[in-house]
Write a structure and sequence with these properties.
Elements (H helix, E strand, L loop, with lengths): L27 H12 L3 E5 L8 E4 H17 L7 E5 L4 H13 L2 E5 L5 H11 L3 E4 L2 H11 L11 E3 L15 E3 H10 L13 E7 L7 E6 H10 L11 E4 L6 H13 L3 E4 L6 H8 L3 E4 L1 H15 L3 H21 L11 H16 L7 E4 L6 H10 L2 E7 L6 E4 L15 E2 L4 E5 L12 E6 L6 E2 L3 H7 L6 E10 L2 E7 L4 E2 L5 E2 L1 H8 L5 E7 L7 E6 L1 H11 L7 H6 L1 H14 L15 E3 L19 H7 L1 H5 L2
Parallel strand pairs: 1-11, 3-4, 3-5, 5-6, 6-7, 10-11, 12-13, 13-14, 25-26
Antiparallel strand pairs: 1-2, 8-9, 9-19, 14-15, 15-16, 17-18, 18-20, 20-21, 22-23, 24-25
Helix pairs in contact: 1-3, 2-3, 2-6, 4-5, 7-8, 11-12
């Protein structure tokens, strides 16, 4: 077993956070190079190059050589400090290399998702005006050509870098060169251009476009120091050691994935293993055996559902699971900690841990030391279950505009995390609650969360009026999130704008109920609404097979066609009654919050049908418009 050594010491609780000091890296590229000096011969990345192929590994030294070749190649093609480099790639070694390569000489990257609409790519390219774009494959290039037009002046002047095995099919306008990745890197390796390393911590590092649920996306301007302050404040506060492995699947085009699943891991000397197929996550984790896992609640919810379903699949398994839960609960209660895993003690506790929980942990590779959940609310029931399994799972909170970290459980030390909260603000970050932004007399301690610190963005690209709406005179950021502070811990209760008031004057925060509903094996996606109505109502994309089984058990005839099934009022009434019994019953939910009507949608909500943003947030307005006729009939 390797020695468990942390890459860097923990930051002082009393240090200043206005700027880098001492040995702090001043740019992301400099951070990467210090890691290379420390961990050069160790593996930085692992990836599967093609279906069925063995995993290939890249050392820190090899990665740094690739970054420097890419940096010189970019410069030789005319990319300069202050320019933007557009990236339309899935997570890959090339993605990471381009982000650091531009940063080396002072250019910023603008990343997009490969599954975005071509029209969204075109909007972002027109707004961010990059000087070059890297594209995942010829299929993506075809989509961009179809959507971005034939005016060469609208295209990045320094051309297109094309990855993938296939040559270009459709070409951009005349004058816009397409170069393959291999030729691009070969040119960089052969070049005699000297790389002059940028040194400005307050220069733009990335321009990340928020996938807003309404209107066009906004470009969030983040500097080197915005991102570095996030990384340095969690340095050595979690049990993460040189040579640890991680299974990376969060998109690096999102700030959560880029900051923590890429940059933090590079800083920490971790071996980043890219998950090639998210549908086979369990298989790849058993191969990778990660010590660290960063994920979103949807991953944990599916884990919770599947494990509990299997534990209930036979009488013997139900008995074993009951005993394992009983002993785990006893041990955790005795330790009086939340979120942190507690080692089994006593003969029976160790026995049932070995028979039940160890097999569950094996699905994660059997080596998982801790996990972090972010991007959306994690159900306390799910968090509690993960702790019983024997995995420390810490929920964090942040936004793209905060680089993204605002607060987290776990970083304060063992036993100091709290369920139903997102922990305490990170070092250097200050959080206040503006109760004037919220006027529910039943919840006077709640208000809009306002954040100050080195993590606050510089503003929205080309949108000074939008920036002024969220950045206060003293430089604080109005998050738009509703929450409260209790003993220094932050609890998120919803979005200020997503709250709605019923006809009786009562306020409803839909997010907690929606997240709880998604724990039901019958619910895939859900939204709750009811502004200015007497009662709330639900719109649900259900688990069709599960609904059919429930109807059969209740003796209700279910139409064979999925659309007809979801339009059947008897089916909707029976499913709503079942959900009220199992997922949204009092006293956990107030009577006025519990819906009295259910609309079923047979179509999955995706980015392709414009019902989800690229970061998987529901576009509520589009959902409501889609079901406007059914809503008007309620």
């Amino acid at each position: 077993m390797q020695d468990q050594v942390m890459a860097w010491p923990k930051q002082s609780d009393t240090r200043q956070w206005e700027k880098p000091e001492g040995d702090d890296p001043r740019t992301l590229y400099q951070m990467m190079k210090t890691s290379v000096e420390r961990f050069g011969a160790t593996n930085a990345f692992g990836y599967i190059p093609a279906p069925g192929a063995s995993r290939v590994h890249v050392t820190y030294n090899e990665f740094a050589d690739l970054v420097d070749a890419a940096a010189v190649a970019l410069m030789d093609r005319g990319v300069a400090a202050g320019d933007r480099i557009a990236i339309i790639l899935d997570n890959s070694v090339e993605w990471g290399a381009l982000s650091y390569a531009g940063n080396a000489f002072g250019a910023a990257y603008t990343a997009m998702y490969t599954h975005q609409h071509g029209s969204e790519w075109s909007y972002i390219l027109n707004d961010s005006t990059p000087s070059i774009v890297a594209i995942a494959n010829s299929e993506c290039l075809d989509k961009l050509v179809d959507n971005h037009g034939d005016d060469a002046s609208n295209w990045p002047k320094n051309g297109v870098i094309l990855l993938g095995d296939e040559p270009a099919n459709k070409l951009p306008p005349e004058g816009i060169e397409v170069v393959s990745w291999s030729d691009f890197i070969a040119a960089g390796r052969a070049s005699e251009t000297e790389l002059v390393v940028a040194d400005d911590p307050f220069a733009l590092n990335t321009l990340i476009y928020t996938s807003g649920t309404t209107g066009n996306p906004k470009g969030v301007m983040l500097t080197n120091w915005n991102t570095l302050s996030n990384i340095l404040c969690v340095q050595a506060v979690f049990p993460i050691y040189i040579g640890d492995k991680t299974a990376a699947f969060l998109p690096w085009a999102h700030s959560f994935g880029a900051t923590f699943d890429l940059n933090w891991m590079i800083r920490s000397g971790v071996h980043i293993n890219l998950v090639s197929d998210i549908t086979k996550l369990a298989d790849e984790m058993m191969e990778i055996k990660p010590a660290v896992l960063i994920a979103v609640p949807r991953v944990w919810n599916k884990f919770y559902d599947r494990v509990n379903a299997q534990l209930a699949s036979s009488g013997v398994k139900r008995f074993m699971a009951k005993q394992a839960r009983k002993h785990a609960r006893k041990r955790i209660d005795k330790a009086n900690v939340q979120c942190d895993a507690v080692a089994p003690s006593g003969m029976l506790d160790k026995l049932f841990d070995k028979l039940v929980w160890a097999k569950v942990r094996a699905r994660f590779g059997g080596n998982l030391r801790f996990a972090i959940s972010g991007s959306a609310a994690l159900s306390p029931d799910v968090a509690d279950f993960i702790q019983m399994v024997g995995i420390s799972c810490f929920e964090g909170y942040g936004l793209t505009e905060t680089s993204p970290l605002v607060s987290a459980n776990g970083w304060m030390g063992y036993g100091k995390s709290r369920l139903n909260t997102v922990g305490m603000p990170a070092n250097g970050v200050t959080v206040t609650i503006d109760t004037s932004a919220w006027d529910d007399p039943d919840r006077p301690d709640e208000g809009e969360i306002v954040v100050a610190g080195p993590n606050i963005m510089q503003g929205y690209w080309n949108l000074p009026e939008k920036t002024a709406e969220v950045i206060t005179e003293d430089g604080s950021f109005r998050t738009g999130d509703l929450g409260k502070l209790v003993d220094g811990y932050i609890s998120i209760t919803g979005r200020v704008k997503s709250q709605f008031k019923l006809e009786n004057g009562k306020y409803v925060a839909p997010a907690p109920l929606e997240e709880n509903l998604k724990l039901s094996p019958l619910v895939e996606q859900a939204v709750l609404d009811g502004g200015n109505r007497k009662k709330t109502f639900l719109i649900v994309h259900p688990n069709i097979a599960g609904v059919r089984e429930l109807m059969a058990a209740k003796g209700i005839s279910a139409p064979g066609d999925n659309e007809e099934l979801c339009n059947n009022k008897e089916v909707a009434t029976a499913l709503l009654a079942h959900l009220k019994e199992t997922a949204i019953s009092a006293p956990a939910w107030k009577g006025y919050e519990i819906p009295d009507a259910l609309i079923l949608d047979h179509v999955e909500w995706t980015t392709d049908n414009d019902l989800l943003t690229p970061s998987m947030k529901v576009k509520l307005r589009n959902i409501l418009n889609r079901h406007s006729d059914a809503i008007s009939e309620l």
